[in-house]
Design a protein that fits this description.
single chain, about 350 residues, alpha/beta, D-Maltodextrin-Binding Protein, domain 2, 2 domains, five-stranded mixed sheet, three-stranded antiparallel sheet, 13 helices, 10 strands, globular, transferase activity, Myristoyl transferase
Length: about 350
Amino acid sequence: MPANATPSHARRRALQQLAALAAGGVGLGLAACSREDAQAPGKAAAGGAPAVIRQAGDKVRFKYPDNPSFDLVYLADQLGYFDGSNTRPDYIGKVAAPQIIPLVGTGEIDFGSRMVPLVISAFASGADIQVVAAGGETLEAAPHMKYFVRKDSGIRQPKDLEGKTIGFNSFGACAEFVTKTFLRQKGVDVSKINFVVIPDDQAEQTLATGNTDLAIIHAPYSGRADHAPNLVRLWSDYDLDRGLGGMAPYSAHGKFIREHPEAVRDVVTALAKAANWVNANPEDARKLVSQRIKLDLQYVDRYAYVKDLVITEPPIQYYIDVLEREGKLARGKVAAHQIYTNAFNPYASGGAAPAKA
């Protein structure tokens, strides 16, 4: 180590070297920017506001929550994937999960990662928001969320949940709609179930103490419940719908998209690199997350991500259909193509270096 290098600087350089070596085998390519790519389609581009012209070297800082979670923004930052760009995260402190999309919709924060139905509902209500990158991919070995009960609860079948209390991290997201869809398919009267909001990092303890009867817990905290001797896992979202409802994408505020298109491209590029790195190095990713959230490594569940974070329509349409069926969205009010754009993803069109916006 050079004499003037600090331990944190050395650690950062080591992480960057690790990421560079790992990413070398992932085969990331860069895609050309077409005229259509120059702006985000749909609502986020509707204002027609000109892009902000920045001098070389100016830094654009995007406001982002600083939450204890498995999140690509933190990993991309830690691995140095924002280096070489003019864009950096500005962490504004912890933000409760149910508030993330509403705050992105108003511009209080510039980016946020939450489930598709929340974005659809916000968009339908007039929020200036659009999905700009795909997120997690549910695999059998890496579910988005898991369902736990106490071993002595007697709950083993969906019908057993009538009259019981289910804890999940927020209304209006995957835990509510994927679960209700599954339970109705199994003949359960969901009106006889009490649903309450419990943060993921508290869900295991709340279940163990008898305050809930079933806990739906997202990674990385679901791993701790898997190791709890008095709990048993019933299902994962992979068991319920093979992961169709498990994509937690990254959304951005429309004004930020219009004013800082190159910064959006920087963010999406960094997130895609980090996502592919996590897929190629799941154990190294778990170690970094363990350090961040101060959770013993054996309890940290892994994540998997959509390759290159390229958005496809089926996970969007899935939730449009669910929201319409639940009476939360007027039929035909929102089309899937309005909710998302791949215009800022340099990997979306297959391989060449991106042009400057």
